[in-house]
Amino acid sequence: MRLSRGLTALFLVLMFSSLLFATDLTGKWSGPMQDGQAVFTLKSDGNAITGTMLGIDGKEYPIVDSKLDGDNISFTVNSQWQGSPVKLFVKGTVSGEQMKLNIAADNGYWSTDATVKREPKK
């Protein structure tokens, strides 16, 4: 009985500490992807992520509808391709200073995988 209570208490402490110390994704992340470079500038506050994605056209597009759940990350980027709006869905996993992402257009015509790493702070 005592062991069960001790394990329960340990589990609760670990669970709440993981909520308090959510992964900090703040910084610039970049890495190769099909037809170029994936570049994200992120700011995280707990499980909320804001920031931008650098488009192939050199413009920065805001990140919306973000979610960080443990090491799983997802967000949407409302970008453009040849003057037409394109919604990109980004999903992946975070592991330390690296993220493995899948970036896909909402119409299903394009997708790519990218492994991005956090750039050192200057």
First-to-last CA distance: 53 Å
Whole-number total of structural domains? 1
Low-confidence segments, given as residue ranges, are 10-21
Query: How many strands in all?
Result: 8
Q: Which structural class should the secondary elements be placed in? A: alpha+beta
CATH class: Mainly Beta
Major β-sheet profile: 8 strands, antiparallel, barrel
Beta-strand fraction estimate:
over 45%
Q: What is the overall shape?
A: globular
Q: For the CA atoms, what is the radius of gyration?
A: 17 Å
User: Number of DSSP helices?
Assistant: 1
- Report the order of strands and helices: HEEEEEEEE
Estimate percent helicity: 10-25%
Q: The CATH topology is what?
A: Lipocalin
Q: What is the name of the CATH architecture?
A: Beta Barrel
Descriptive overview:
- By secondary structure, the protein is α+β, with helices and mostly antiparallel strands.
- The protein has a single domain (23-118), classed as Lipocalin (Beta Barrel).
- It has one helix and eight strands, in the order αββββββββ.
- It has one helix spanning 2-20; strands at residues 27-33, 36-45, 48-54, 60-69, 72-81, 84-95, 98-105, 111-118.
- The protein has an eight-stranded antiparallel beta barrel with strand order 1-2-3-4-5-6-7-8.
- It is globular.
- 16% of the residues are buried.
- Residues 10-21 have low confidence and may be disordered.
